[in-house]
Structures are given as structure tokens and as C-alpha cells.
Design brief:
The structure is a homodimer.
Chain A lengths: L7 H8 L3 H8 L7 H13 L6 H8 L4 E6 L5 H16 L3 E6 L4 H13 L4 E4 L10 H8 L4 E4 L9 E5 L1 H14 L5 E6 L4 H16 L9 E4 L3 H13 L6 E4 L2 H13 L9 E3 L16 E3 L2 H17 L9 E4 L2 E3 L10
Parallel strand pairs in A: 1-2, 1-3, 3-4, 4-5, 5-11, 6-7, 6-8, 8-9
Antiparallel strand pairs in A: 10-12
The structure holds a DNA duplex (16 and 16 nucleotides).
DNA sequence: CTGTTAGCGCATTCAT
DNA sequence: ATGAATGCGCTAACAG
């Protein structure tokens, strides 16, 4: 019926008060009498009043919106991080808008711009690029004083707060676990792009070997894009070049899934002949046969931590806050794919 | 440095023209000379101008934003639909904001309100409730003239456009496939909430049995929430009540995954003793052992179709457009979990 | 092709 | 405890 949008002025008119009073009442300003507050609220409901956040945001210069950018939202890890951010944000009456960079820097640049145009109050992002030149658009963000928080795929080249898990430790635990299962020829799948997280996992792998006096064999390391197909290719290469190996620690669950497929196709027994460990604890890892051992990155907690860092930055008075770094502890989830010994 | 935000007025001042001209130039208005356009563009870049969409949206009364609401974003099906919507929307210079209802009507109501407050130009949603009273908040949406499009979990109780796959057909194909594999005692897992899609799948299952002269056995139908655990419980019940069954068609991939787990635990051979078919073609279905047969719902196409319906509504002059309905054809993806016969 | 004017809906300073 | 006045940044009549 009343298709005309009702504004605070309409409410004011009906009540013979001014729009300012209505505005204050709706915002629960303590200087407004309970009586008028109640009157305003009922009238607002009667007129089917819908607040216009755009107007408020324009006026206040803040939108109560946090933009979050992830490579892709259909990764369980990333959608769980989003949930973590939302939990904290919603509590504080902030909303979250999610964007995908779809693994390209170009998309990321476009998305950052969209968020900036939308006047989000801050941006939380897992980076898509690994080179210095891939970060230039974030200078624009920090320069504008928009709080920026990085998570998971981070860099120190942007001087801002970040939250990560201890990837080194996760990889170390994973590798050590394989060693304790009796594996001595452990292959490693890593990303060909040198993201910090993959470097750290690589480092953890190498260190664990070293600390257990197991020789590092470069030909057992395979680089790829960490997709299923990369895992397949790496595994085939290992098998076809008759490199001797009795385990694979992959920095990605998808790649280790590819390994499992190829090993099964070639009738290699898992874990007896080759034990497998992945990284991220994607839900499907518990659906495979045998179920896959993996490293839990605590994505919800990571999202919460990122949100908390964001609000710290937001509420900090000083322009230049010292960048904080939250480091979460990973957890090795042991499943049958790596269990050669019964306990 | 120049922390002060630059506006079109700043650009205008520097160039000794007016803000309107700048606005027109930035919007590529044909009535502006190429010379001034170029001048404005360079000056904008020089001053690091960032357009304020909030202001434009407030002024124009439209935000170039589409809100999409899904039960949960970490379902591959839903995130793929989002991608489909984005593809069409971005083409037309619209952005998409994603919200999760997390399976509760209360959340959905809150989220709808948030989107309305944010003045999205339309809402695309997969419903979370199945009762009439669960839809009341959408009257608010349609009444305000905000285009609304439903997908997947839809209802005819809200008079608006929708896009679905032919769930009846998908279920029919799945069931018929099992019959052709020689199965005659086919169990069915369905949702205890009577969403239209589950009703249709149930109908397809029953019709396929009937058309092949296979008696319908009510005790082989099990209701639940369509999660993994529900599939486990249903399967245990079937086994423990020694109902004779040689196949399960589940309206959910997660539930059929639960079935697979229990059957394996009890050493029931898949597909020889019990053949399995799921619904949705979630990526993990190809990771299981044996891989799961499932029904492809073409989520990207569904998202695209939903976006197209939205833009039709948006561009329609008449207030009351006749609700459209797009029905996509499903596809049965046959994998080893249901293949008793070699071809 | 460009300028003038006005206002989208709201929050806020300064009054009273 | 409330009102009056102003402007956030932008676009869109209307005018010329």
C-alpha cells in the first residue's frame, strides 16, 4: 500500500516532534524521555519504518561494515573464518560482507576498490599474491586509515596486524608424527608460489627431519598449486621416477587427496606402504578411506582473532598503531591414513 | 599524508569547473567533452579520489547491491550458486553481498532486515523455513517493491519468481538407475521438514518405484535433518530392524555419506549388497571409496538464472510482474557406489 | 557542453 | 528534554 518510504520525518510529523528527537529516540539516546522513546518506537512500527543505513553511514562517515576477502568461499577453512569474524562483529553490531578474490590479484584489486567505495570500516583479508607488487593496492587502504587485518596468507611487507597459526609447528608435528610411525623417506608437497605459510610448513618439515637425523632428500619435494590434480601429478612423478618413499606430508588436503587416489589406482597400501598427512582438516578428510590425518588450523578462532585485531585498530586513537600478530597453535588430527602402529 | 578524503568538489575546484561536471565526467556522461573527461580522470587519480558509493546510493535511491541469503555458505552447492549470481551481477556492474541464515528463521529475519537497511536493490534467497509463518518477513520485502527471487528451497506461498531444478525428475532418475542396476528394495532418506524440494524428491522416488512395479515399503523411508549423523542413524535403524534393503537413495549427500560409514563399519559391501545414491553432487562425493553416485543440481547455472530473474523484475515497469519460474534439468552422475553391473 | 539548485535520510552541534 | 540548522557526497532536474 504505502509504497512511499517512511523516514524519521514522517514519524516526527505524526508525533508533533522533530526529526532530531526521533533520531535520538531510535538511537536510544539517554537524553530522551522514556515516554517519547516509546511513542517513537510504536509509531515507527506502525508506519513500517525501515532505517536507512546508507544515510546514517554517509552522515557518520562509518558504515558498521567489515569487508572480508578470501581466495574462495567454498573452501571450508575460509567459510569457517568468516563465521568466526561474524560472531565477534555481530556482537558489536557490525555486519560482514564477504568477497572472493578467486585467486587472482586483479580480482583482489577490484574487490578492495569495491569495498573502499562501499566505505567499509575495515578489511580483513587472506592474500592472494605473494610478490611485493601484489600488495600495492593495500597501501591505499592503510594510507586512508582503513584498518586492515591479514590472516592465514599474510605478509610482513604490509605493515599491519595479522593472525596466523604456527604453520611451522603444524608441519613439524605432522612430520614428526610420520617419523614416529616409522617413516624415514617422507615426501613433501608444497606450493610453487612462495606464500609465507607454505615456506613455514616447508621449514617445519625440514627441521623435523633434521632433528630426527633423517637425511633431507630434495627429490622428494614436489611443488604445485596445491590442488587435487597437483597432488596426483606429484604422486605419479614420485612413483614413476622410482623414488623410494614411505610417506607424504602435503601442505594441502586437496593435494593429499590426489595422492590417495593415485596410490589406490596403483594398489599401493595406505598407510602400510605409504602414510599420508594433509593440512587444513577440510571436512572431506574424514570421509575418505582411509580417513586422512590433517592439521587443524582452528579457522573459527582465527576469524575471531582477526575481528578482535580489527576492533583494536578501530578503537585505537593513535594513527599509527604498532602492528599486532596473533599466532594460534595448530593441532594434529590423527586418522587412519598415517597410523601404521597401533597404540 | 592527505588524510582528508577528496570529493568531487575538490576535483572541481582544482579544475575550475563545477561538481556536477565532475560527476558527469566520472559517470562517462556523453554530454561531457572528451577533454574535460580526461582532465577530470587525471585529476581524480592525482588526488587519489575514491568515489563514495554510499552518497551515490543515497542520492539515487539504489545501491547496486544484491543481497543473497543462503542457509550456510560452506555448502559447496550454495557457494557455487553465489558464484553464478556474481557472474551475471558483476557483468551489469552490480555487487553481491552474501549472508547466512544458519538454518534458523530468526537469523533469516535479522539478515533480511540488515539487507533492507543496507538498501540492497534486491534479495535472492534459499529459504530456511517450511511453514507459512516462516515467510512473513518476506511480505515486508515484496511490499516495499524490493525484487525477491527464491532458489532451491522455495515456496509458492510468497508470490515471487523462483528457480529450481526438477527435483522430481532428479529423484526419479536416481531411483530408476538403482532399479536398472537390479535393486528392488530401495530405501529413501528424506528431510523431516517438508521443504518442497524434499517432497518432490520423495515423489520422484515413489513414482519410479510404481512405474517399475516395485512395491512401495513405508518402513524403508527414513526422515531426519539430512546431516551425516542422520544418515548414520537411519542406516543403523534399517540394519537393526532387519529390514531387507539393497539400495539407498538419499536426498542429501551428507546423509548418504553417513550411510556409507555405517555400512562399512558393518562390513556391508557397496554396491554389491547395498547400492548408494545421494543428491547435490557435493565435491566430496568423488573422494569417497567407492565414489558416490549423486544428482548434479547445476548450482552455477541456478545462480545465473536467479540473477536473470532478478534483473527482469528490476527492469520491469509494472509494479506487479507475474512471478516467473525457471526449472533446470538435473543430471545423474553415476559413480561406483551404485554400479552393480558393468556396462 | 556546462552551471545552478536542490535534496536523498540521517546525526549532530548549538541552542533553549 | 527537545528544536533548529547544517551538511555528509553525490546526482539530477532545469537552465542556458
Amino acid at each position: 500500500m504505502n509504497s512511499k518510504k517512511t523516514t524519521i520525518h514522517d514519524i516526527a510529523e505524526k508525533l508533533n516532534i522533530t526529526a532530531s528527537t526521533v533520531s535520538r529516540a531510535l538511537n536510544n539516546n539517554p537524553r530522551i524521555s522514556e515516554a517519547t522513546k516509546k511513542a517513537v518506537l510504536t509509531m515507527a512500527k506502525d508506519l513500517n519504518y525501515q532505517p536507512n543505513n546508507l544515510a546514517a553511514a554517509l552522515r557518520k562517515g562509518k558504515s558498521q561494515l567489515i569487508g572480508i576477502i578470501v581466495p574462495r568461499i567454498n573452501r571450508s577453512f575460509f567459510s569457517a573464518v568468516v563465521r568466526g569474524v561474524e560472531e565477534v562483529a555481530n556482537q558489536l553490531n557490525y555486519r560482514v560482507v564477504v568477497s572472493q578474490s578467486l585467486e587472482t590479484v586483479e580480482n583482489e584489486i577490484a574487490v578492495v576498490n569495491t569495498l573502499l567505495n562501499a566505505r567499509v570500516d575495515g578489511i580483513i583479508v587472506s592474500l592472494v599474491g605473494e610478490k611485493s607488487t601484489d600488495y600495492e593496492h593495500y597501501e591505499n587502504v592503510t594510507k586512508k586509515g582503513v584498518p586492515l587485518v591479514l590472516f592465514d596468507r599474510t605478509t610482513t611487507e604490509i605493515g599491519t596486524s595479522q593472525v596466523i597459526i604456527d604453520d611451522y609447528l603444524g608441519a613439524y608435528m605432522a612430520t614428526e608424527h610420520l617419523i614416529k610411525q616409522g617413516c624415514t623417506k617422507i615426501a613433501h608437497f608444497t606450493h610453487k608460489k612462495r606464500f609465507n605459510i607454505y615456506n613455514e610448513r616447508y621449514r617445519g618439515y625440514v627441521e623435523a627431519l633434521k632433528n630426527h637425523n633423517i637425511p633431507f632428500n630434495e627429490s622428494l619435494v614436489c611443488e604445485g598449486n596445491m590442488q587435487l590434480e597437483d597432488g596426483r601429478n606429484c604422486t605419479k612423478r614420485l612413483l614413476d621416477t622410482d623414488n623410494d618413499f614411505d610417506a607424504i606430508f602435503s601442505s594441502s588436503d586437496y593435494a593429499i587427496m590426489g595422492a590417495m587416489q593415485v596410490l589406490k589406482e596403483r594398489n599401493v597400501k595406505i598407510p602400510e606402504e605409504v602414510a599420508l598427512v594433509g593440512f587444513s582438516n577440510e571436512p572431506f578428510t574424514s570421509f575418505t578411506d582411509p580417513p586422512l590425518t590433517s592439521v587443524n588450523q582452528f579457522p573459527i578462532e582465527m576469524g575471531q582473532a582477526a575481528a578482535e585485531l580489527f576492533f583494536e585498530m578501530l578503537n585505537s586513537t593513535k594513527k599509527k598503531l604498532i602492528p599486532q600478530k596473533t599466532v594460534l597453535q595448530p593441532e594434529l588430527i590423527v586418522r587412519a591414513s598415517s597410523l601404521k602402529l597401533e597404540h
